[in-house]
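Morning!

This is the sequence you dropped in the shared folder:
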Amino acid sequence: MNFYQQPPEDVLSSLNTTDKGLTSEEVKKKQEEHGYNELEQKDRQSLFSLFIDSFKDPMVIVLLIVAIIQIVLGETIESIIILTVLIINSILSVVQTRKAEDSLASLRDMAAPSATVVRNNSTQSVPSKEIVAGDIVILEAGNNVPADGRLLEAESLQVEEGALTGESIPSDKEAIMISEETALADRKNMVYSGTLVTYGRARYVVTGIGKETEMGKVAELIQNVSAKQTPLQRKLESFSKKLGFVILGLSVLIFAIQAFRIFTGEGPEDLQIELLNAFMFAIAVAVAAIPEALQSIVTIVLSVGTNKMAKKHAIIRKLPAVETLGSTGVICTDKTGTLTQNKMTVVQAYLPEHEQELYSSEPTDWSFGENRLNQIAVLANDSSLNEEGEASGEASGDPTEVALINYSNKIGLPFSDLRNKFPRIEELPFDSSRKLMSTLHEIDGEKLLLTKGGPDVLFKRCSKILINGEVVEMTEEYSKTLYEKNEEYSNQAYRVLAFAYKPLSKEELDLEDENDLIFVGLLAMIDPPREEVSQAIKEAAEAGIRTVMITGDHKTTARAIALDLNLFKEDDIALTGQELDALSEEELMEKLEHISVYARVTPENKIRIVQAWQNKDQITAMTGDGVNDAPALKQADIGIAMGSGTDVSKDASAMILTDDNFVSIVSAVAVGRNVYSNIKKAIAYLFSGNLGAVVAIIAALLMNWINPFTALQLLFINLVNDSIPAIALGMEKEEPHIMKQNPRDPNEGIFTGQTLQSVILRGFTIGIAVIISQALGIYYFGSPEISVAMAFTTLILSRTLQVFPARSNTQTSFQAGFFSNKYVVGAFAVCMTLYGITMLPVVRPIFNIPNAFGLTEWSIAAGLALATTIILELKKLVFPSKLAD
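The structure's back. C-alpha cells below.
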C-alpha cells in the first residue's frame, strides 16, 4: 500500500521512527544503508570518445583513406585541406552533443540547500542532503520541500507543485486519510521534493529521499531516455553509408579497369608511372563524388533557420531541431499558458435575480447586488497589482484573487479606490480546512462582514439571500437553484467562488461570525484560451499536423478548453492518467488517433503517449514547462520548453518558446519545413554538380582520355566554389503551398521524387557539357592540357550557374523573383570572382591551366555551361510541376 493510503502511525512504524524524530545514531545508520538525499548522475562519454565517434561515418572514412594516400604520394596540399574539413566537422558534432547533457544538472540544482528537522528531541537545521527516510521535517511558507513525505500536521498549507504536476495554482494540503488510489496531483496528504510552500505550515515524515522521490524518478526517466537522431540525421547517415561504399567500389573498379588496360596493352614505357596515373584517376572519382563540406553546409543552413525562428519567438537549443520541427506530424501540447492565457479571468457573474457574462460598463447602471458582489470580491482579498495595473501583468497573490481585482479594474472600479474608501478593520484569514476568508469594513456608515469562499461551504453558512436589493429568507428552492448553478459552472470547467455578507456591530472577529450570512452571488473564472490559438490549430490541421492536449489539470477543465479551441472533435476521447494506465498497449494503439485530451497525467504517462505516436511513425513534438515534463521532452523527437518554465525542462528540450504561445509553434513549423526544403536544395545542388564530375570522369575513362580534372581542382570546386551557393540556397523563401501539404514520411529518403529527378537531370546535363568541352579540347584544339582546362572551366561555371535553377523544382528563377534571394546573386558574383583568381598567370600552374588557354577556349566552355542552365530552366516551363518535393 502506498504511503498516502496509510494512517500516520502505520507510516511512522514502517519507517522505524516516531513523531519525536530520529536520533543522530539512527540517522547515521540510515545514511550508511541508503546514502544521501541527492540525485545520482551517470558518467558521461568523454570528449575524446565523442571526437573519435564522429569519424565513423563511411564517407568520412573514404576521405581519410584518400587523405592518407595523398600524403604518401606527396600531395600535401590536398591532404591538409581534406583533414582540416574533417576536423572542423568533428568539432561541430562534439559541441552539439555535449550541449544536450545538462538537464540532470538543473534538476540537482532544484534541491533545497537546508531543512528544519526534529532530531534528538530538538529542532535543528541540517543540509538537505543529510535528510533520511523517517526524519520529521517542519515546513513554513517560503520553504522548499527537501524530500517526499506524508503529512502529520498541516495548517492552511498550500504548496506550489506546478513543476511536478502541471497544476497552474498552488495545491491545498491536509493531513487526511486517502483510501483509494489517486493521481499524484490529488494526493493532498503528501508533499514532494523540489516543490515550494506558498502558505501555511506543516510537519511531515520523510518517506523517500534521492532517487526514491518523485523528482528522483523524473531524473531516472531523463537519464534512461536516449538521445534520438532527427529524420535528417538518420537519412544523411543512411545515405552516407551507401554512398561511401558505392564510391569506394567505383574507385576500385576504375583502378582495376585502368590496370587491366596497362597490363594487356602494348607494354607501358614506365609501368610505375602508368599505375600511379591510374591510381590518381581512381582517387579523383572519390574526391569528385564526395561533398566534403556537406556537414558544414547543413549546419550553416540550420543556423540560418534558428535566426528566422528566433524572430518568431522560438529559440533553438539544438540545431537539428530546426529541420525536425518541419517534419512534425503530432504536437503534444500542455494546456496552461500554451493554449490558454495562464491568467485566471472572471467570465460569468450570477446573482439570484439574473445572470450575465459581463457587468455593464456604466457604474450607474449597476444594481445594489452587483455593487455588493464587487465590493466583497475586492475587499475580502489579499492580492494586489502594481500601479500600472493589469496591463503590466505584475501581480502578487493567489491567481483567483488577482482575477477578481483585475475584473474590478476592467469594469471601471479601480480596486485601490475601493480599498482606500473602505479600509479593512479586522480579518479572518483564509484557511484551507474551512475554505473561507472574511474581512470587516465600514460601508455607508454600517459595519459589514464580507465573506468569500468555496460555494459548497458558503451555501451552508447562508440563512438569507439578497434578491433585487432585498434580503429574504433562504428557502430550499433557492438553495437548490444555487447548487444547480454551481454544478453547471463546474461542468463548464469554471473555478467558482461564492460571496456573502452580514451586518456586524463588533470589531473583534471569531469563526462563529461566519454563520447566518446573506448570500449575494457567484463569480465564475477560467484560464481562457488564447484568442489566436484556435486558428493556429486549424492551420496545423491543414498542414497535416495533429494537436493533442496533455495536462495535469482535471479532465473536465481540459475537455472544455479543447472543445472551445475545436481541438476536441465529435468522436474524440478524453482520458485521465489512471484511465491511460488501465489500457494495454494494443488498446492504446487502437484508440490513440481518437484521444485528443489527456488529463491528470504523470511523467510516465507523458512518455508513453509520445512513444505511442512515435511507434506509429509520427515525428512527435512535446511542449512543457515543469520538471514533470522533462523526460517526455527528451523522449520526443523535438522537445519544446516554455520560456517561463523550469531550467530542467529547458535543458531537456530542443527548442524554447519565449512567449509560451502555441501559435509560435505553428509559425516555427513553417520555418522548419522551409529549412528542410532548403537543405534538400543545397544537397541536390552539391550532388548534381558532383554527379556531373563523375559522369565526365567515367566518360574520359571509357574514351581512354586524360583525366579531365586534378584532385585540387575538384577540392576547390567542392569546398570553395560550391559551398557559397549552397549556403545561399539556405536563405531561399518558402515555396508556395508549403503549409498545405502533409508532413513528409519520416522513412522517406533524401533523394526521392522531384529531388532525385532534378539531381539526375542536372548531373547528366552538366556531365554531357563537360564531355563535349573536353572532346573539343582534344580533337579540335589538339591538346590534352587545353582539354583539361576546358573541362575544368565548363564544370565550375556549370555548377555555379546551376544555383539559379536549384532555387526551386517548380519555378524558374524569374518566376520566383530573380532578386528575391539576394544571397544567391551575391554567391554567384563571389564564385565568379574566385574562378577569376584561378585564371591569373601566377595561379594557373597550381590548377594545371596552361597559358595557351585563351578567350576562344574560355568562350566555348562558358557557352556550354550557360546552355546547361537554359536547358534546366526551360524544362520547368515545358514540363511544369504542381508542388515542391
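Headline: The CA atoms of residues 534 and 566 lie 7 Å apart.

More detail when I'm at my desk.
O.
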